[in-house]
Amino acid sequence: MRKIGYGLAALAAIALALYLAYFFNPQTEEQEAMNAAWDRFAEDVAELGQLVEAAPFNRDEQTAAAGYRHIARFLATFLAEFTDFRNAEYPQFTRFPNSVARIGWDNPDNPYLAFPVRGDHTYRLRGNVINFDLVTINVYSGMLGHTPVSDIRTIASIASDDLEVDANGDFVLTLGPEPAEGNWLRLEPDAYIVVIRRLVSDWEKTDEGRWEVVNLTTLGSGSPRPTAEDVARSLDDAVTQTRDLRELLTIAHRITFQLALRPNEVSEPAETDPNLAMADPFQAASRGWFKLEEDEALLVETPVADCRYTNIQLANPWMESLDYASHQSSLNHRTAHVDADGRVRYIISLRDPGVQNWLDTAGWSEGSFCARWTVCSEYPTGISARLVGLDELDRHLPADTPRVGPSERARAIATRQAAISRRYAGGS
Predict the structure, then answer these.
(1) Could you tell me which of 194, 251, 226 has the C-alpha nearest to residue 51?
(2) Which residues pair with 136 in a beta bridge?
(3) Partners of 128 in the beta sheet?
(4) Whether pLDDT at 3 is above 70
(5) The pLDDT of residue 259
(6) Can you give the pLDDT at residue 255?
């Protein structure tokens, strides 16, 4: 028995030694601080669901499901942003918004780019404008949800019309605190992010050309490893921006659609957005909120305007663009039909009315829409919206309104799907 006891003790000693050698991992005070930061992050993520529950338009399971998906998309996007793409010393492009981060009426005609900056550094941006109707480049002092709205301003802007470009459409732009030869945008001390809007009405033109950004102040030097403080801050920033941006969009909904407008009304175009910072200073926009039955349509009429670019799009109640690849939920000046009287008539409905200017709600009976006019000789007035029955729609449309049958609609959707596939071939 004594030998058995010695053997068991030896095995226990060996097991303890193995545990101490391979499994025991005592934590330093610094590691415990990092562990606590992760625990706080997990708690904060759990609380994000309250934003979905409290939304004023969340009245059914479809909207709730889309809301949780919306929050998950926000969080995934901002985790990537703050852990990898908000380093102004070593900037990288993000497609923000993108096919996942559908934020605040993100424009289906716009393969966005963004990158972070510091006001005391100098950057070189290379790009190409040849396949875009218009490119606008804006420097902002903050980011919605990350910076108090009162502190966000447009520091500097330039449109492709004002850029020096070569015969191939290529340009080089310097961004920095000191003037530079050629194309230049001033960076001021509070510069935070650059947003590039690249408007393309012809989705067959998916060749974006060469785009590159480098920080000339740090070019050639290696970036340091993120510290524990950096990682903890990025986790906190990701949750904070997810929460604060969602709260801001809910406030915008209350102001725009509960106080200023009733369902199925549309606002007159306003230069920049009266409720959201970071709107493109080169455009005017109208908003509306549709609320439809299966047999109803919202007829939105706008005059033709002398603009470089116009479009209209639908969004779900969370202000995300709809699935614009598989549904004709957006139209622009190239794809929309203009009637002989100089007006454009859009039809928003759940069912296809068989006309060219149909906007498909993708099954949503409630949602919002946004119309844009960018770089215009004069912004339009006289926008109208009225609710009509689908069976009486023809009485409100010109006799020569183009008709679209099921096979033609299917071809149009197939074309959209292929174009968006090509757009995001390099990732979202």
Answers:
(1) 251
(2) 159, 197
(3) 170
(4) no
(5) 85
(6) 87
- What does the alpha-carbon distance between residue 273 and residue 409 come to, in Å, rounded to a whole number? 33
Identify the CA nearest to 50 among candidates 63, 67, 66, 38.
67
Do residues 116 and 213 lie in contact, with contact meaning Cβ atoms separated by under 8 Å? no
420: tokens are: 């968006």
Count the neighbouring beta carbons within 10 Å of the beta carbon of residue 269.
21
* Residues forming a β-bridge with 173: 125, 183
Token pair 């480098």: residue: 214
- Residue pair 346/312 in contact by the 8 Å Cβ criterion: yes
> 425 phi and psi, to 5 degrees?
-60, -30
Residue type, 28: T
Q: What is the mean pLDDT of residues 187-207?
A: 95
pLDDT digits (tens, 9 = 90+) for 310-364: 999 999 999 999 999 999 999 999 999 999 999 999 999 999 999 999 999 999 9
Q: Is 297 helix (H, G, I), strand (E, B) or coil?
A: strand
CA distance 387 to 389: 7
Kindly tell me the sign of the dihedral angle through the C-alpha atoms of 211, 215, 220, 222: negative
Mapped to the 3 state alphabet, what secondary structure does 180-237 carry?
A: CCCEEEECCCCCCEEEEEEECCCCCCCCCCCCEEEECCCCCCCCCCCCHHHHHHHHHH
* Residue whose structure tokens are 């993100």: 106
Query: Is the distance from CB of 177 to CB of 120 less than 8 angstroms?
Result: yes
Helix, strand or coil for residue 55? coil
Instruction: Show the tokens assigned to 201.
Output: 């009405």
Q: Supply the pLDDT for residue 427.
A: 58
Question: Phi and psi of 309, rounded to 5°?
Answer: -155, 140
Give CA–CA dist 391/386, Å, rounded: 15
Tell me the pLDDT tens digit for each residue of 346-355: 999 999 999 9
Q: What's residue 104's pLDDT?
A: 86
Tokens 């479809």 label which residue?
62
